[in-house]
Design a protein that fits this description.
alpha+beta; Immunoglobulin-like; four-stranded antiparallel β-sheet; 4 helices; 8 strands
Length: 155
């Protein structure tokens, strides 16, 4: 094998192996809704696909996904928002029957290293309320508007 081709193959594999990585998975209550935050590091501009699922009674149920089909019982209650390095699942009307092990699965297009997966156990009585400040940070346009308005408020 030509040494130049060998180096190119090694560099391609190393680059693909570092496309994205889930950094953190957390859950909190936002009113009557469950919010599951899946924070990741993405080192590629390739499109990202996701899947949120729950395992309960030893069975996986897809809640919301761009990888496979969501189950009917969650379709009208779940939505997902994507921000820079953050995918958020919102499950409306969260009850104890929705408790279980939640999974976030991410895959970058053309990433041949496999999907990134993290799990979190969600029990309604043990969930904390979502912090108001973290909601502001996720929507940076509100934070920017607030910061730009400060000089006007001081006048």
């Amino acid at each position: 094998m030509n040494p130049t081709v060998g180096i190119a193959v090694i560099l391609t594999v190393l680059q693909a192996a570092q496309c994205q990585m889930i950094r953190d998975l957390s859950a909190c209550l936002l009113g009557q809704s469950l919010r599951v935050d899946c924070r990741y590091e993405n080192k590629t501009s390739n499109p990202l696909t996701y899947e949120f699922s729950i395992t309960k009674d030893n069975r996986k149920h897809v809640i919301h996904s761009t990888i496979s089909v969501s189950e009917n019982i969650y379709r009208n209650r779940a939505n997902v928002t994507m921000h820079k390095n953050l995918v958020c699942l919102y499950l409306q009307s969260f009850t104890t029957s929705d408790e279980g092990v939640y999974m976030c699965e991410l895959k970058a297009t053309n990433d041949y290293t496999g999907n990134q997966i993290k799990n979190i156990t969600v029990i309604k009585d043990k969930l904390e309320k979502c912090a108001g400040f973290s909601l502001l940070i996720q929507n940076t346009s509100w934070l920017l508007l607030l910061l730009l308005s400060l000089p006007l408020l001081q006048a």
